[in-house]
Write a structure and sequence with these properties.
The protein is α/β, with parallel strands linked by helices. It has helices spanning about 40-50, 70-80, 95-100, 120-130, 210-220, 225-230, 255-270, 275-280, 285-290, 305-315, 345-355, 365-380, and strands at about 30-35, 60-65, 80-85, 110, 135-140, 170, 185-190, 295-300, 355-360, 385. Strand 4, helix 4 (about 120-130) and strand 5 form a beta-alpha-beta unit. The longest helix has 15 residues, at about 255-270. The termini are far apart. Belongs to the DegT/DnrJ/EryC1 family. This is DegT/DnrJ/EryC1/StrS aminotransferase family protein. Keywords: Aminotransferase, Pyridoxal phosphate, Transferase.
Length: about 400
């Protein structure tokens, strides 16, 4: 096994820059607030929506069966019941038949972007109508109309057409996210659909003087030599998917706000040549969607759990930073089941959890890493698939 190891994700945390302070972020058609995390952003929306209704009225939020348990944490924080439905097999989309068969129309639908793949919100809006609140969860993607490296400003930043079908969208700036501020989130509301949004957001805490020390430490740890060393420490369980309750929502601190615009621009200006090289060599999961966007990780589906685990071992013995992402469907993650309703089986979500592996795409991934990845994939093509088999 190689001593050095690529981290699964690792967008560099930037130092403070004065270059973009006069050029703040604004969105075309959306206003926004900055909070302490992506989960807090989602929790703020749900808690605000909860307050618009009678205390005794039960509210439900549809969420997919393969996603981060932070969606459940945000629902529980706000007093909203998460309802798990499956994904479709042929593309990344909620199972519309499940939504139509629910005992009552959902009050809220949360649609996470997976690695950068977004759901068809227009189709979901047509199914549920204007009464249902739709939230696009962009914790794994910063919305882009098209992938370009020539962006010069974030003033009146244009959002994809499907995002305008949503009442809200959120994004995250935590470790392992596309734009990395080591914490923080954004909650944005569609000004054409939401007349007023006044969430309960506590004041920001005092900014930590340790931020730049933590920034340097994070950037150092993500280097392959350092990451390879710490990944061997027993008991660390790096990258494990764990359910953590949400306890508070407060405003983003000043240090992170100062770095926001420069960090977003730096991310969106990055070339995608590593992603392109991999796309030319292997078909990713749900290729019609995943090849049209900037990906956080490169998703590959295998034909069995055993094949996935075999490939993970080969990739990581070569130091290539492969990951299983969420190793379980949402309902099976410890602590989740007691807080959710699951009226349907979720075979597609289970299959994705068992058979998916991802390869890193961050700036530490070089061409020689890709060449080694492709060699391994070429030797194991008989175990690969590009979409789950249809469950009908």
């Amino acid at each position: 096994m190689k001593w050095s190891q690529l981290a699964p994700v690792g967008t560099r945390v930037l130092p403070r820059s004065r270059d973009y302070l006069p050029s703040p972020l604004t969105f075309s058609g959306f206003d926004y607030s900055l909070v302490n995390s992506g989960t807090a952003a989602l929790g703020a929306i749900l808690a605000w929506y909860r307050k618009q209704h009678d205390a005794g009225q039960a509210l439900t939020a549809v969420i997919p069966g393969y996603t981060c348990p932070d969606l459940v944490a945000a629902c529980v924080y706000a007093g909203v019941t998460p309802v798990i439905v499956d994904l479709t097999a042929d593309r990344y989309q909620l199972n519309n038949e499940h939504i139509a068969q629910l005992d009552k129309k959902p009050d809220i639908i949360i649609c996470p972007a997976l690695f950068g793949m977004s759901m068809d919100l227009a189709q979901i809006r047509a199914l549920v109508g204007d009464e249902t609140l739709i939230i696009e969860d962009n914790a794994q993607w910063f919305p882009e109309v098209s992938v370009t490296s020539s962006l010069v400003s974030l003033k009146q930043y244009a959002l994809p057409a499907h995002t305008h079908q949503a009442d809200f969208f959120i994004t995250s700036f935590g470790r392992g996210k596309p734009v990395n501020l080591m914490g923080g989130g954004l909650v944005a509301w569609n000004t054409a659909r939401v007349s007023s949004f006044e969430p309960d957001i506590a004041p920001a805490p005092q900014s930590s003087s340790m931020f730049d020390i933590k920034r340097r430490l994070f950037n150092t740890v993500c280097r392959p030599g350092f990451y390879g060393a710490i990944s061997r420490f027993p008991g660390l369980n790096l990258g494990a998917t764990v359910y953590h309750p949400l306890h508070e929502v407060h405003a983003m601190d000043a240090i992170r706000q100062e770095r926001l615009t420069a960090s977003i621009l730096a991310y969106l200006r990055q070339p995608v040549h590593i992603q392109t090289m991999l796309q030319q060599a292997v078909t990713p999961l749900w290729a019609p969607q995943s090849t049209q966007c900037r990906l956080l990780r490169f998703p590959i589906l295998t034909q069995s759990k055993q094949a996935r685990n075999h490939l993970l071992r080969i990739f990581n013995e070569a130091g290539l930073g492969a990951s299983a992402m969420y190793g379980e469907p949402l309902y099976d993650i410890d602590g989740v089941a007691s807080d959710c309703q699951a009226p349907f089986s979720t075979p597609v979500s289970k299959l994705i959890a068992e058979r998916l592996l991802t390869l890193p795409l961050h700036h530490h991934v070089k061409k020689h890493h890709v060449h080694r990845m492709v060699t391994i994939l070429d030797d194991n093509r008989q175990w690969l698939a590009d979409a789950p088999p249809n469950q009908d």
